[in-house]
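Thread: "does anyone have the structure for this chain?"

Original post by V.I.:
We have the sequence but no experimental structure in hand. Need at least a predicted one for the grant figures.
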Amino acid sequence: MSSRYDVHELKEQEMVLNMGPQHPSTHGVLRVMLHLEGENIRKATPYIGYLHRGTEKLAEVHKYYHIVPYTDRMDYLAAPSNNLGYVQAVEKLLGIESDVPERAQYMRVVMAELARIASHLVWLGTHALDIGALSLFLYTFREREMINDLFEKYCGARV
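Reply from O.Q.:
Generated one for you, tokens below.
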């Protein structure tokens, strides 16, 4: 069955409901078409979307250091993690990964881990908010702000 369905194919008591995407800015990433009979899910068909921004094509025609701002924006909650993956790949391709100072390697890991924690804090806070736990939302965003302050002091960016 395609994403379009014929109403005549539905059973008498069946209802079709689209679940997801969960946030307006995540259009195209995942949708699940649910076939319901009352409260029971009879069939769930996932439709995996592709959120394509053309970054690969941009990378083909720009110098490697011009692409870092694009990798920065691929995941706005954990930007340093994407930067780290890209920069390490470029260094490996150029054969200069052994030239990266040890201190810089440690700082990269610390930044990536802080980004991961900040991203998880957004997840935890917003999901708690969805079930009515406002206090946890406030606590997690307070902690995330502390991490963003560290990012701002380190590189000037809060994202």
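V.I.: this helps a lot. The radius of gyration is 21 Å.
O.Q.: and The chain has two domains: 8-48, 55-155.
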